[in-house]
Amino acid sequence: MNKDQKAALRRELLERRKALTAETVRRASLAVAGAIRCLSEWKNARQVLLYWPVRGEVDTRPLMAELWQRGVEVLLPRCREAQPGIMDLACVSCETDLRPGMFAIMEPNEATCPVMHEYEPDVALIPGVGYAPDGTRLGFGGGYYDRLLAEPCMRQTLTIGLCYEFQKLDKLPAEDWDQPVRAICTENELCRI
Ligand code: ADP
Ligand code: MG
To answer: Which one, of 168, 165, 169, 167, lies nearest residue 187 by Cα?
Structure first.
């Protein structure tokens, strides 16, 4: 698969996702949340990395609210404006800690949520445009999560790619820098790799 084919595949999958109805997103997100909640790693987690959903992504907000209630540390990424491709993590304790950031995604407010330098999330929920059965991830093309997941402090983390069943692909080419996830969760099933 060359660069153009990869870009075309991204476009096609993103268009399909954007066309999902709010009800489909809601139902699939409920199913995904149900599967995640059953994991022992989730039940025992003390720190979790999440993402703020945009453009039809599986909705992680109900899970986020639960973690806040349980007193589990919630980490969210913040893109570095001056360094494309790099994200910092910050701890967020409520929705008012968020403000619109790059790519129109809600991010931790710099004023109230300083960069975290030492973190070791027990679980990380990872958005994606597509996933292959071996955990290879198709992202937005910026390599943001490849760089983040390559950090040594993510070595023990159960990384779970969240997507819809239609985003599961038979095969994806993996480049040297691509970081696979350790599980994939859709509205139908959660598969560990
Ligand atoms: P995505 O994972 O978002 O789908 P790709 O993996 O296709 O994106 O591409 C990521 C881009 O970032 C590539 O152009 C790659 O050359 C560049 N890049 C350079 N260094 C790294 C790195 N350490 N990790 C990830 N991507 C990198
Ligand atoms: Mg990649």
So the answer is: 165
Torsion of CA 20, 134, 182, 42, to 10 degrees: 50
Domain span at residue 186?
3-192
Number of domains present in the structure of the chain = 1
- Residue 174 scores a pLDDT above 90: yes
Is 10's C-beta closer than 6 angstroms to any atom of ligand 1?
A: no
pLDDT (mean) for 43-62: 97
Predicted confidence (pLDDT) at residue 1 exceeds the cutoff of 90: no
Rounded distance between C-alpha atoms, residue 177 and residue 154, angstroms? 15
Question: Can you give 44-69 as a three-state secondary structure string?
Answer: CCCEEECCCCCCCCCCCHHHHHHHHH
CB of 146 shorter than 6 A to ligand 1? yes
What CATH number does residue 115 fall under?
Answer: 3.40.50.10420
Neighbours of ion ligand 2 (CB under 5 A): 146, 178
Pocket residue to mutate for ligand 1, from 146, 154, 175, most atoms within 8 A of Cβ:
146
Spacing, Cα 154 to ligand 2 middle (Å): 16
